[in-house]
Amino acid sequence: MKGIQGLNNSCYIDASVFCMFAFNSTFDSALHKNNGGKKTGDDDDLLFIKVKMQKCLRDSIVNPLRRDFFVSADKVATLRSLLDQSLTGQRFLFEEKDPEEFMNAVLEDMLNVDPFLKFNTGHESHIHQLFIDKDNLDIDLTLTSVQQLIEISFFQSTLKLTQKPACLMLQMPRHGKEFKMFDVIIPSLFIDVTDLLQYGIRECTICGEMGVFECSHCFHSHKTLSSIVFCQACSKQYHSHNKRSHHQPQSIKTLFINSTPNASSTEKMELFAVMCVDVNHFVSFVKTGSHADSPWIYFDSMVNRKVADNVLIPSIRVCSFLPGLLTTSESKLKSTCLAIKSGETDNELMKRFLSDAYICMYRSTELMFYK
């Protein structure tokens, strides 16, 4: 057997751990924190459980997963038991929960990992849910991407990141696990967070010089955050038109005075995992390396059952179609999505990848080893 063996509704944990640790090092520092992520106010009993949980996750799950590519169900059961002991009332041992509940419990409550995401509102978190108000949006979202959704979500919520995160975990717009707001979401291979940062070097959409103004009124016609940034001269000229004279561009905050945007000013993050859900069952698609052509694999912790022993058998499948799918032309990708929506494709994994995305995970290759 290969993968993480499922048991007692553990798929939400199995899929989360596989995404976070199988081929990714972004979370590794949490596995080696002194005192198991001790918080102020932790008593000796709780600290003892935290250290045991950290050791269980590192030595009994992550290390065997990377070394042998297999983790038995009893190891995950031990981790769930330790979570139950430390987080009163959470009931992780047998109940089915959402992946974000598990990840927040491990990263925030148990290992005390500093939140990856820090917002201009003062809020901090490890995972961010994208909220979209479709009723007040004059944009066609029949076929949408994670890049488009995060820009719309941040714009509508007037959110900015105060710094580039080492990891960006985005929960797709949904009403619960079962109701999807979008039939198809294209997981962008890279997320450009340049225009999501509160401070940074942004480029004028007209002349390419450093942007100093952002016009929220222009978003409704231009549809992207990068297209509503102007230098002083271009903003004055562009908004002198009668149709735009009522716009009120706002000054952009920046720590870089008189800088010139260039290719190195662009802040991008790389997709490394997509967790999907269908009928309360979680699976994952994970990139196995850091190169553009690195293979992707599909993981399901309980796809088969060995009847004689009542044992669940995990499944690992290579997704040879994914590298090509993620780098194909926009028109070809849209054709694929339309085929999925109309039921004209027989590639079940491709359908799951594009139709059932629940959490998309991105990493900064520059920051992942330092935060």
TrEMBL record:
Highest taxon in the source lineage: Eukaryota
A Pfam family it matches: UCH
Stored PROSITE patterns: USP_3
Annotated PANTHER family: 40S RIBOSOMAL PROTEIN S3A
Protein name listed in UniProt: USP domain-containing protein
Taxonomic classification: Eukaryota, Metazoa, Spiralia, Lophotrochozoa, Annelida
Gene (UniProt): 20213863
Keywords annotated in UniProt: Cytoplasm
Keyword Membrane listed: no
Record has Cell inner membrane as a keyword: no
Gene Ontology cellular component list: cytosol
Organism this protein belongs to: Helobdella robusta
